[in-house]
Amino acid sequence: MGQAKAMADGSWYDTDIDHVIISEEQIREKIDELAKQVAADHADVKDGILLVCVLKGAVMFMADFARSLGRQGPSTEMEFMAVSSYGQGTTSSGVVRILKDLDRDITDRHVLVVEDIVDSGLTLSWLMKYLESRSPASVEVVALFRKPDAVKVQVPTKYVGFDIPNEFVVGYGLDFAERYREMPYVGVLKPEVYARS
Ligand code: PRP
């Protein structure tokens, strides 16, 4: 799908986007691929997979990934966590505060963390330690996007959708000042959008 088609529906956000990084169709295809892989790797899991969505960015991915997994894999349950990293400006520090914790015990469960993006890796690194301390049977990660050039701490991310350039991107859950999350594709904002905010 070309950029013109990816942005053809004329939504309010289209004119703010400089260029598309990943189209809606690419996202849909990749999610089905990831779900197929996860389903194959968990075919023997009896009590289902416990999906842990990290709010808010991963909400779109969680919804689409869970539905795709449901069509081809074991059953799932959904949990939601909200964390906030104490950062300076736009960079996170690795010190994380829990805003919303898990609602249930994950002891002996197969946990799959559903993340929209791994940037520095600091949030995920902290989260993995936190979840592992709660005695699950396993903890793995599926991340739709990863920025290899931004990584500060390596986190074993078993399933990755797309490696993307180290640019500030919005859409499909990713925000700028809480906006653009509803965009069905991922793109880079025009410089003037930052200038007017
Ligand atoms: C984003 C994203 C990841 C984290 C990745 O969340 O959803 O959780 O940053 O960054 P890192 O690898 O550098 O730690 P954010 O804190 O922006 O919150 P949001 O999901 O509510 O937008």
TrEMBL record:
GO terms for biological process: GMP salvage; guanine salvage; hypoxanthine metabolic process; IMP salvage; purine ribonucleoside salvage. Its EC number is 2.4.2.8. InterPro entries: HGPRT, Hxn_phspho_trans, PRTase-like, PRTase_dom. It holds the Pfam family Pribosyltran. Pathway: Purine metabolism; GMP biosynthesis via salvage pathway; GMP from guanine: step 1/1; Purine metabolism; IMP biosynthesis via salvage pathway; IMP from hypoxanthine: step 1/1. Residues 26-176 form the Phosphoribosyltransferase domain. Its cofactor is Mg(2+). Belongs to the purine/pyrimidine phosphoribosyltransferase family. This is Hypoxanthine phosphoribosyltransferase. It comes from Actinoplanes lutulentus.
